[in-house]
Design brief:
Helix content is about 15%, strand content about 30%. It is α+β, with helices and mostly antiparallel strands. A hairpin with a 2-residue loop joins strand 14 and strand 15 (about 220-230). The protein is globular. The N and C termini lie close together (about 10 Å).
Length: about 290
């Protein structure tokens, strides 16, 4: 089964493309360390709430929020949850919409914990778009982010942080680490489905599911989601584990389309980076039925 999964979800490294396009290492002109930001800076940011827990998510369609499966402590239980969008703080005013279906990856925790740490949430109704609520563009498939590249990671401040950050929407600058560094830190938790980024303790966050953004020609691309390790303080430079969005691109698009069709939602605003035609999607659906 593991061989079939490998064939289904991976591609030869010869097909990979890199971001940045050149090997030059660079940060943003104005480096953004951890600090509270306004929702208008990251209008895709969602607050996912269930019971007394919360985590982060990203709006990718008018009724689809992308998050990590590890957001749900009891992932095998049908927990009722809601999503808040357009808010600057956990307790702030925003659009609160119930979730009518959760799609957790079929092989979440397969072989090792946190493997395939990804989930889709279907909202009960469409969001109302505006300056504080927008969709994020996900990175294309077969993309590798070069080591040392700066990414911005979002999250909601929790009680592990100074009071000035609690319940605030935060953004923290991190840098992509090598696979070797990641494997040394996390061992078998490092798989093809994730990657690591380095950060200083003062840039730590609180929750998981937050978006990892890479700026390409002034456009924020969603390249990862914080899966684990974003709140460490014990090292001079810490390592966080991220779900690799490029690795799951086909899974995201295929299941988003399936869920939208299931709930009779007409979603015609596909991103320009989504290059799949009907025959490719049919082929992928056939693969899924054969091997999963």
């Amino acid at each position: 089964m593991s061989v079939l999964l490998l064939l289904l979800y991976t591609t030869s490294t010869n097909c990979y493309r890199y971001l940045p396009h050149s090997e030059e290492r660079f940060s943003y002109v104005n480096a953004r360390n951890k600090h509270p930001v306004k929702i208008t800076d990251v209008p895709h940011q969602a607050l996912v709430v269930y019971d007394n827990e919360y985590c982060s998510g990203s709006l990718i369609f008018s009724r689809i929020v992308l998050t990590v499966a590890s957001c749900f402590v009891q992932a095998d239980v049908d927990i009722k949850c809601s999503v808040k969008l357009g808010a600057n703080t956990v307790t702030g005013v925003g659009q609160i919409i119930p979730v009518i279906e959760k799609k957790i990856h079929e092989y979440y925790k397969h072989e090792v914990p946190l493997n395939n740490d990804i989930a889709l949430l279907v909202l009960e109704r469409n969001v109302v778009f505006g300056l504080n609520v927008r969709k994020v563009i996900i990175v294309e498939p077969e993309i590798i982010i070069r080591t040392g590249t700066t990414i911005d990671v979002t999250g909601w401040g929790g009680s592990n942080l100074p009071m000035k950050y609690v319940h605030r929407l935060l953004l923290s600058e991190m840098k992509i680490a090598t696979d070797e560094e990641c494997e040394q830190k996390y061992g078998k938790l490092k798989t093809h489905s994730n990657f690591c980024a380095r950060y200083q303790p003062e840039r730590r966050l609180s929750d998981n599911g937050g978006s990892a953004l890479y700026k390409d020609h002034d456009i924020d691309l969603l390249v990862g989601m914080l899966s684990f390790g974003g709140s460490f303080t014990e090292e001079h430079e810490c390592l966080a584990l991220f779900t690799n969005i490029s690795y799951f691109h086909r899974w995201i698009i295929f299941n988003s389309q399936r869920l939208l069709m299931k709930h009779c939602i007409d979603e015609n605003t596909m991103y320009s980076s989504y290059e799949y035609n009907d025959s490719e999607m049919d082929s992928y659906e056939y693969e899924v039925r054969q091997y999963v």
